[in-house]
Amino acid sequence: MQKPTTRFLFSLFIFLFTAGVLTASTFRFPTDSKIIYDMRFSSGGEALAIADGKTIKVYSFQSRNLLNEFSGVHDTQVMTIALSADSTLLASGDRSGLLVLWDLQTGEPLHQWQAHEDIILSADFSHDGEHLGTTGADNKVHLFDVASRENIATFTDHTEDVTVIRFQPGGTLMATGGGDSKVILYDRDQRVMVQELIRHTDWVRDLAFTSDGNILTTTGDDRLVVSWNIANLQNIRTRSAVKMLSGWNTSVDFFHDNQTLLLGSINGRIHIQTSVGKMTHKVRKPVNKALFWSNDGMTLHVVVATRGRGILVISASDMKIN
Predict the structure, then answer these.
(1) What is the bridge-based pairing of β-strands 173-178 and 183-187?
(2) Residue 225: helix, strand or coil by DSSP?
(3) Which of 118, 122, 167, 319 satisfies CB 3.0 to 4.6 Å to 138 for a cystine?
């Protein structure tokens, strides 16, 4: 069966909204801390992992039941988490620079590294599960071999905090962004820098690849949302560069159609941009991360990690159509 198009999704949403079929359904996952810096979904979206203080909690998204809790290792706040694509491993990094690899099913710690000399700001697994990348406030990017647990490369091309790292789906690239306004592409197999992308004028806070790996979208404190066509590394082109929202943009995510974009900002706004229109919502607290969730490809939810209200789940019916 063919996936519904963005136009169909948006039309369906408008119909349900105006017909009163969708009702307000904002809810929260219980957390000990009201300040949540990171969260990740399992590959199928069934489970949601949340960095909650010094622990990581994993919930069933639909039942909202707590599935597991990872604790007893971190002595400082967990700032970032990552889940492997096969949902067997979880990585967590904290304020002290400690990186921990966990068995996602049992909750047991498998390995620890004193990976960074300062706060670990971002972590990500490659889609084949072979590599784990981390970035930190020490301006460094580390690449680990998951099987051997070895640090196989360290990159020092950024001159400020490195805020985010993401691996290219189906490819060998990894992308980083930082406080020096740089977006840098690396080849994880060759362990070399491929190219530095110049467009931002302030901190880069987040970035996201489309599922085919051909488009990279970046955003940050300059409010720019920049989409790069990286299909041909010899001819990387800027597809678009548009200022969106007000205040710093802190988060970006793609829906699986590779066209619908989700943004979050420091001033507590979330914004969905589609090919036919946009929707917005105020959460009244700074947004640290915002992610799409859909169980059927036709109903959108937005999950928001906030600085003051914990984790919020917002249905499309709660959002203003612009």
Answers:
(1) antiparallel
(2) strand
(3) 118
Residue 40: predicted pLDDT: 98
Cβ-defined contacts of 237-240 (< 8 Å, 24+): 238/199, 239/215
Whether 20 is in a domain gets the answer: yes
Cβ proximity of 152 and 145 under 8 Å:
yes
Domain membership of residue 238 (yes or no) is: yes
Output phi, psi for 255, to 5 deg: -75, 165
Whole domain around residue 59: which residue ranges?
6-321
Number of C-beta neighbours around residue 172 at 10 A: 16
The gap from C-alpha 39 to its chain's centroid, in whole angstroms, comes to: 8
pLDDT average per 10 residues of sequence, the chain (322 residues): 46 39 63 98 94 98 95 98 98 99 97 98 98 99 98 98 98 98 98 97 98 97 97 92 90 93 96 88 95 78 96 82 74
Q: Exposed, middle or buried, 70 (CB in 10 Å: 0-12/13-18/19+)?
A: buried
CATH number, domain at 280?
A: 2.130.10.10
